[in-house]
Protein 1
Amino acid sequence: MRLALIRHGQTDWNLNGLMQGRTDIPLNDTGRAQAEAAAALLDAAEWDVVVSSTLGRARETAELLARRLGLPVAGAYDDLVEQDFGAAEGTLVAEIDARWPGRAFPRKEADEHVGPRGIRALERIADEHAGARVLAVAHGTLIRHVLAEMSGHDARHYPRLDNLSVSEVRRTDAAWQVVTVGGRSFAEVREALDAAADLVRLAG
């Protein structure tokens, strides 16, 4: 199965540097324009359906992509929603580390739960859209954790994903593999991931 994980378009909270998480902030006009521009770079002939997380910014991004590409919107999945950042949501990202050292936010969804949750969503999508080539609109932190779960790396070492960036994965013989990360080949990104892991091991 071929599947592309796409980060939703910009919201006002993204623009203003606020931690967003599960808070259901809509796209702004820039986010809508980003979706239109991204659709123009995708080949409709290479994809069959568009799905998304259940949060509004992802659903609207999916609808804009689908309309431009002439593809159906084929579902929204709770397990694709962004990590819940608890008490930190709505806080300036620049102030997060000072307020909560180690990013131990009250009521935060545990980091180790995010990747497996995202994989469950992909498995459900694969079951419900067997053989289809799927565009799945989700969220930056969720996508990084999913990719890390597949590759065995630390999600914190994955690069930040821009709005409407595309990360492709595939499933063969019941195993998921990372193909690209934000438009870059996984082979290229893996060098930096492995180097970061080596530094952690040496420091330990």
Protein 2
Amino acid sequence: MKWFVGLGNPGRDYEDTRHNIGWMALDEVAKRWGVSTAQSKCKGLVAEARVEGEKAYLIKPMTYMNLSGECVRAFLDFYKPDPADLIVVYDDMDTELGSIRLRMKGSPGGHNGIKSIIAHLGTDQFHRIRLGISRPAPGSNISNYVLSTFRKEEREALERTVTKAADAMEYCLKEPFEKAMAKFNGS
């Protein structure tokens, strides 16, 4: 069983922001699989799917970004999935918009959602799909940037990012994460 956690913030004010690109990727996969992430469980919205014989969960924490680990912990405590099957999908300023980067582990790199998950799991040993949102101009306020919406001229690159992330999630159902890294990193 794979469990994909897309990071974002609940509410209309955050719906189309850079910080919610993880939710956008989960929505794309949910659409492909014909499921809805509308069921409220474990401090999040959860969808269960069976894809090519593999059970998969799509989880959107409803705790706000900085408390994402509460939802991940609640899901882990209730469903008892293998933490090795966790894949977190989230925004990354160090990756260009239009690109994704897969990582097996690591520090939060300043991302408060990842910091919360590490604190609640007690480890940084979980897989990640980092979705590029690019860096703001030097001197810009980081919080304002990640909570801003994508500009019209960024929409095409946004769609590429979301599509690549959804493709990577589907690939991870069939192949080991290392193989997914080799396929999607650098593409």
Protein 3
Amino acid sequence: MNSLTPFPHRPEQTETVMFHRIELNEILSLYGRMVAAGEWRDYGISALRDAAIFSIFRRSAEQPLYRIEKRPKLRNKQGMYSVVGMDGQILKRGHDLKAVLRVLERKLIRAI
């Protein structure tokens, strides 16, 4: 019996970064409040090899207003969570997702 397969499994290429359920609950809680306020209308989630990205849209045809990113490689440096604006500027970065999301909650206070 031959142990070689035509498509060998290479785990380092198939692993992706994902948001955990607790992280998604935090993000979707904020998202729901912003949708109720009429500020946001759509979202997209990307799971890449080095990052998980939650993109927030005002309309689905636009580029994202904000991106909430999780980059585990930055865990020991600036923090693995960040909020990035439409222009690519990092609005907040840190180790605690709740603290990072506060930069967007301030926008909710202004919207109401």
Protein 4
Amino acid sequence: MDTKGKASGKKINWLHLLGFMFGVMVIGSLAGIANAGNITTWYATLEKPPFNPPNSLFGPVWTVLYALMGVGIYLVWKSPDSPQRKKAIQVFIVQLVLNFCWSFIFFYFHLIGWAAIEIVLLLGMIIWMILIFRRVDKLAAYLQLPYLLWVSFATLLNVSIWWLNR
């Protein structure tokens, strides 16, 4: 975004931008809130690898990632109508649903192995989303790179926890 309130050469509608950011953060927060009780109970009893971050790190990281996702989908949504834009929005929705479901598979149902399979699917959808976003709005794609890196790390963490607790 430049100093004149433009992103990717287009004027920013701040209300829409905040709406997209808020909407994505609400969806992510709902999964987190619904499963919070299992973090201090069931999750605390699992054996974890030495690189497992403190629980206090997850909330702030996910807040930033959901905000970046919101900005990214806003930029795509603001782009001219095209088949690529439509596909980018569809892929975004699918990856967001997978993101939402992972928390329930892992924390609510305690299906660590199934969660590992699901997060690999999510990782693939994130890569696809970035590739499709790039065709529509490069900034939207680049804003998803921290999400890709974090979910790559989360995939390693999920698989490691499954391995240690199988």
